């Protein structure tokens, strides 16, 4: 993933453009690196989930809660993917991702806003809608309902997350009540995150 080097370079530019000092840089970097041993297992699980999602997607993709856009760009670099739209509530992250589009791929687009409120293009539909580490902080029902509104007829919803607060069962219940087929429901691993040990899962729901 050579484009991660571009992330590194661009992040430094953002830091120095904002007036960051060498002392502040050392503090930020060291505060993150010292936590790596405790975070390593979680990072492995997160990367595994991301890799599986990338294998699943093609056509037009919506990445909800795209964050830094790493998944968004990786999906967009696939030949089978026509376009990926990443949406996030952080203006700073969206601006950062848009700075990188010309250097990585313009098949990735980034939109600032709340997924539940933002208006997408009229009649715009997606073949895959992805929620990666997005739903565990919320009740999934309104997000999944909104996803169905912009999902193509034979489209799929992919959720990769940690089973916090019964998230996995809530999604299963939603699918059952809405007569949606769960095409895949697998456990990817178990690791400590958010102060406890949770299973990470990948679920694929067919919307048609």
From TrEMBL:
InterPro entries: Methyltranfer_dom, SAM-dependent_MTases_sf. Pfam families: Methyltransf_31 (PF13847). The keyword Ribonucleoprotein does not apply. One of its GO terms (molecular function) is methyltransferase activity. Residues 58-179 form the Methyltransferase domain. GO terms for biological process: methylation. It comes from the Archaea. Gene3D superfamilies: Vaccinia Virus protein VP39 (3.40.50.150). Keywords: Methyltransferase, S-adenosyl-L-methionine, Transferase. SUPFAM superfamilies: S-adenosyl-L-methionine-dependent methyltransferases. PANTHER family: METHYLTRANSFERASE (PTHR43464), UBIQUINONE BIOSYNTHESIS O-METHYLTRANSFERASE, MITOCHONDRIAL (PTHR43464:SF19). This is Putative SAM-dependent methyltransferase. It comes from Thermococcus paralvinellae.
């Amino acid at each position: 993933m050579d484009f991660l080097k571009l992330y590194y370079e661009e992040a430094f530019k953002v830091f120095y453009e904002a007036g960051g000092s060498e002392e502040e840089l050392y503090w930020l970097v060291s505060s993150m690196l010292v936590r790596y041993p405790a975070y390593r297992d979680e990072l492995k699980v997160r990367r595994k989930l991301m890799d599986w999602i990338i294998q699943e997607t093609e056509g037009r993709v919506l990445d909800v809660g795209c964050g830094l856009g790493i998944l968004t760009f990786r999906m967009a670099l696939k030949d089978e993917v026509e376009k990926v739209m990443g949406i996030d509530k952080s203006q700073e992250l969206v601006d950062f991702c848009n700075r990188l589009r010309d250097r990585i791929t313009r098949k990735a687009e980034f939109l600032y806003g709340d997924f539940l409120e933002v208006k997408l293009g009229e009649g715009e539909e997606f073949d895959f809608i992805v929620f990666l580490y997005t739903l565990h902080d919320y009740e999934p029902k309104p997000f999944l309902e909104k996803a169905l509104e912009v999902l193509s007829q034979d489209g799929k919803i992919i959720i990769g997350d940690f089973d916090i607060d019964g998230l996995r069962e809530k999604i299963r219940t939603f699918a059952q009540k809405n007569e949606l087929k769960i095409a895949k429901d697998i456990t990817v691993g178990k690791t400590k995150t958010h102060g406890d040990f949770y299973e990470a899962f990948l679920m694929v729901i067919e919307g048609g």
